[in-house]
Amino acid sequence: MIKSNLLKGLLCDLKTSCVKNICTSQHARKAVVLDGKKLAKQLQAECAREVASMTSDGKTAPHLVLVQVGQDPASTIYLRNKTRAANEVGVNSTTHRLAENVTLTELLHLLQSLNDDPAVNGVLVQLPLPPQLEEKVVCNAVHPSKDVDGFHATNIGRFCMDVPCLAPCTALAVGELLRRYDIATFGLNAVVCGRSKNVGLPIALLLHGDGQRQHGLDCTTTICHRYTPPAVLRQHLSNADIVVTAAGVPNLIRGEHLKPGCCVVDVAVNRIKNKDTGRVKLVGDCHFESCVEVAGHISPVPGGVGPLTVAMLMRNTILATKQQRQLT
Ligand SMILES: Nc1nc2c(c(=O)[nH]1)N[C@@H](CN(C=O)c1ccc(C(=O)N[C@@H](CCC(=O)O)C(=O)O)cc1)CN2
Ligand SMILES: [Mg+2]
């Protein structure tokens, strides 16, 4: 009797320690951090080689035109980064700076002249725009063949139909991150948080798209947005193998919401100002410290998707140039 109780006790201890070990090993293994900065450097180097081979026979380098309206400080930084990236890969770039109060007619006139100029291969208007300029009208005024942002309705429509096009850079960046880190997507559950026309929607289209026809990732994809009740969002998250978030809501997603081992791609860039020091900190939508304990892979903010979007812009500029040269 004593012996059997002892044995039971030992067995029980053994069971507990086994269970503990399993849990400990699961919790101890932190997610692999997806290094967008490093990947962007690789992609930039690939673009540089591509431009070098395009120009080796005396052809001119691609020419990208950037348009800034007003003086939003973040836009100024992003445009500077785009100009630097263009220099690095050998793409020529020109920036047009327009006054904050420019009229729609004036901006459309500039875009028309850039569309008509055969020496210009890519055009983008930095967003956000001041209120007198409707984003949709401006984005649709760039000719689809020069629309390196992939924001024109024709390009979005083609992307939606799994037809070759200039696709939105953020969606391309997410796809590249998943592909280069060899993250499985086929037939898996994906959740996208945020439904903006330029970011959330194209990412959902990419995840949902047909991999046999284009670069679709063949996921079962759910889009959650501001009117998704929190309990419903959590239900979807708990079942998601891939989570991509672009909601602009710090701490929207915490580790306890995630399916263990899932892949989290945080696209949001939220600026949080410390009240005491006045310092600004960049964070995504995920509470990184808790998510990194549960996920299998996670992209950081900063240093995740952001730098990759700029590299994808260079790739789109090269693609647009090649397509234009085949046509002419
Ligand atoms: N015409 C466009 N306007 C805007 C786009 C766009 O793709 N086309 N996207 C954003 C801004 N953006 C590019 O323009 C952009 C945002 C963030 C980053 C980035 O590298 N972020 C860093 C953090 C740097 C910082 O914000 O200080 C990171 O995440 O590591 C690149 C490009 C809106 N407008
Ligand atoms: Mg883990």
First and last CA, distance: 93 Å
CATH architecture of the largest domain: 3-Layer(aba) Sandwich
What proportion strand? 5-15%
Mean of all residue-level pLDDT scores: 92
The molecules bound to the chains, other than polymers, are: the ligand Nc1nc2c(c(=O)[nH]1)N[C@@H](CN(C=O)c1ccc(C(=O)N[C@@H](CCC(=O)O)C(=O)O)cc1)CN2, magnesium ion
Report on the structure:
By secondary structure, the protein is of the alpha/beta class. It folds into two domains: 61-149, Leucine Dehydrogenase, chain A, domain 1 (Rossmann fold, 3-Layer(aba) Sandwich); 164-308, NAD(P)-binding Rossmann-like Domain (Rossmann fold, 3-Layer(aba) Sandwich), CATH 3.40.50. The protein is built from eleven helices and eleven strands. The strands form three sheets. The chain has a six-stranded parallel β-sheet, sandwiched between helices. A three-stranded parallel β-sheet has the order 3-2-4, sandwiched between helices. Helix 3 (73-89) links the parallel strand 2 (63-69) and strand 3 (92-98). Helix 3 packs across helix 11 and helix 7 (169-180) crosses helix 8. The N and C termini lie far apart (93 Å). Bound molecules: ligand LMY7XDAE and magnesium ion. Residues 77-78, 124-127, 149, 169, 269, 282, 301-304, 306-307, 309-310 line the site of ligand LMY7XDAE. Residues 168-324 form the Tetrahydrofolate dehydrogenase/cyclohydrolase NAD(P)-binding domain. Residues 34-149 form the Tetrahydrofolate dehydrogenase/cyclohydrolase catalytic domain. It catalyses: (6R)-5,10-methenyltetrahydrofolate + H2O = (6R)-10-formyltetrahydrofolate + H(+). This is methenyltetrahydrofolate cyclohydrolase.
